[in-house]
Amino acid sequence: MDVILRPMRWWDIEPVMDLELRLFPEDAWSPAMYWSELAEAHPGGTRHYTVATTEDDRIVGYAGLMAVGTEGDVQTIAVDERLQGAGLGTALLTDLVEESARRGCAELLLEVRVDNLRAQRLYERFGFQPVGVRRGYYQPANVDALVMRLDHPTHDSKDPKNG
């Protein structure tokens, strides 16, 4: 199945919520949270949101980034359970990592449920390293979050391409 990545728009919130509620029934975001995030997803804004769609424009995944100064944070990433394991999570995370680098982030952080080993393996393949735990982060289930960080290469004089 061919999948297209494109910027998330306000009209995507309803189908994103359908997927959100199916994938994260205990700790789903609200539509208002997505409206708030998209309000900052404009040129010069602090957010970047992408949806993955099929050729008939059905949303099968989405991801969001917050980038402030030199720090980036993966806000969310989700893939339709019927397409998990097909490389869509990799494509979405690649989009976020590349966008964070484009925006000049020195590091990219994320939180992932301690019981979501599949997602942790994806992040580790990208070079994310565990840096801490946030107790009871996911509510109301009271599930801990593993905090992971990816350090972007710096542009300094040690890099022969930079001088």
UniProtKB/TrEMBL annotation:
UniProt entry keywords in alphabetical sequence: Acyltransferase, Cytoplasm, Ribonucleoprotein, Ribosomal protein, Transferase
GO annotations of cellular component type: ribosome
Start and end residues of each N-acetyltransferase domain: 3-153
InterPro entries (alphabetical): AcTrfase_RimI/Ard1, Acyl_CoA_acyltransferase, GNAT_dom, YpeA/RimI_acetyltransf
PANTHER family given in the database record: ACETYLTRANSFERASE, ACETYLTRANSFERASE YPEA
Sequence similarity: Belongs to the acetyltransferase family. RimI subfamily.
Name the UniProt record assigns to this protein: Ribosomal protein S18-alanine N-acetyltransferase
